[in-house]
Structure formats: C-alpha cells, structure tokens
Amino acid sequence: MKLHHYALAFFALIFTTLAIVSIRKSVVNRTYKQAVKCENELTSSLLDAMTDVVDMSQTGEYLFNTEYKRKVAYDEFYATLSLNLNEYLTKDTYIQDTIPCLFLVDTDGYYVVYREGDADNTLQTKVSPLNTWSEYVGNGTWLIKYYLSDWVTIIDRSTGEHYDGHVEDVKIKTDNDGLSYVLHDYLASYEDYCAKREYCIYKTMEEQLNYYVNKYNVNAQYCYDLTIPMTTGIQEGHPIDKPCMFALMQGKYLGLSGTHSNVYAYANGEEITERAYYASNDGYYHKGTCPSLGTVKYKGSMKDCARHGYTPCPDCN
What we know:
Blueprint: H1 3-55, H2 67-84, E1 101-106, E2 109-117, E3 123-127, E4 133-137, E5 142-146, E6 151-156, E7 162-166, H3 167-176, H4 180-187, H5 190-216, E8 244-253, E9 260-268, E10 277-280, E11 284-286, E12 296-300, H6 302-307, E13 311-312
Parallel strand pairs: 11-13
Antiparallel strand pairs: 1-2, 1-8, 2-3, 4-5, 5-6, 6-7, 8-9, 10-11, 10-12
Helix pairs in contact: 1-2
C-alpha cells in the first residue's frame, strides 16, 4: 500500500473516531437537558398534587388516609405531568408507564402507587396498603414503630402491651416499668432516637423504592440500585420528616448509548408554592385534571392567567 493510502486510512480513522465522540457527546448533552426538563416538570407536578391534597385536608389530619385523597393525589400528578411533558409521549405511550413508582408519604407510613398488568395484561394503576416504619429489638421481643413526628409506639410482643406517646413520655413510662436495659440504645437520648428513626425510615423506603422500580420499570433490561440521600453525611438529601410525595421517572430512550433519562423528584407540604394553571381556548384557566380543559394556550399561576385576560373555570375553581 502506498504512503498516501496509509495517510487516507489514518485520517479516515481519526474522522470516524471524532464523529463517534461528537455523537456520544451530543447524546450526553441531550440526556442532561432532558433530565433537567423532566425533573423540573416532575417537581411541578408533585407540588400541584400536594396542593390539592393539602387543600382538602384539615390541619393535623393525615394527608393520604383515605382512598379518595390518594386517588386525587395520583390523578392530579399524572394529569399535570402528561400536560407538561406531552412532547415526550406518543399515541401508544402513557405518562403513567414512565413512572415505575410514586410514593405518598404520610405521618404514619407510606403508600406506593404503581402500574401492574391484570389478567389480560392491561396495565392498571394500583396502590399498596399502608407501609409502616418499624423494627424489632430485644431479640424480637419488642416492636418499635416510628412516625414522621416525635410520636412513637413500642409493643411488647410477648404480652401485647403498648406504650404510645411522645418519645420523652414513653421513655419515662418504660423507665418506670424497668425496661431501660432493653430499650436503652433507642431511648437513651432524644438525639439517638432521632438518628435511629431517620435511618429506619430512609432504609425501609429505599428497599421499597428499589423493589418497585426494578419490578415495574418499563425497560426490564435495566437493573437499578438506588439510594435515597439522607440529611446527614457527605451527600445531603431532602429531609423526609413531613408528609410528602416523591417519584422516579424513566425518560425517553435516546438511541446511540442506550441511555434513558432517569430522574427523581420530591415535594412536601412546606414547599408548596403557587399552583400552575392552564389557560385554554375557551377563555378559562383550569387545573390540570379539569375535564373541560381544551387546547392549552398559556401556563402560569392564577394571577398570571388572570393578567392575560383568562377567568376561572366554573367546573374546577
């Protein structure tokens, strides 16, 4: 082979390598941009759903303690997310199928919303029973049940006796009954108790998150090992110390690298800001779940929509 042939082959190889690198870089950039958009819209949809549930609950009441309120939460979440991310959907794709699991976290435990096939393999939205945060101590003799508050329940499994109340009050009761030696590691100090409670809550939910994501994700060839960042340590995360909602979304398949955009978002009652409304061609602004919502012309807060000349929908406002 002549020298110029070697040169041509060399430059062809360099060009091909650079082209592949450029394409992969493009895919990475697209993945990042999609992840950012999906996370923003996921958070916005969670906040809208939380707003609905908080609005219909009394102060001090559990947020997700009825089937109706749980349905309102996930219906509002799916409807808003579908509106916000409609460019990622096709006629054969439903937003629900991109969410392996949605967690509804209440003061006394949490529910998991997921999609599962029925007898004819039609996917249906299902909700798990209430999952609680608890652990056994004293060789399984005692069951400690935690809450997203300073309330605690301790059960003697051998006698069925319950100790319920604020953690400091329960500590006094168990001390008086001579049980300090059994529960010392859990009730020795308020700080120790809070650390054990947080660890139990995070690890319990982390196990469930991985179970549901790996069982119900839309791309079964992927296996996930997810971690929920705690509020202590090097990687600081959102505190799960109040009722909240969080979800993981599998984004659009991007081709070359086999990459999906997987995003996680969280919202709790204290983070609720102004709800997003949808102004449509009927002259009204609507909630995302409104059956009267037509072609969306504008998205913004209630004040923004009013400023643009839209009036409240009589059906949903």
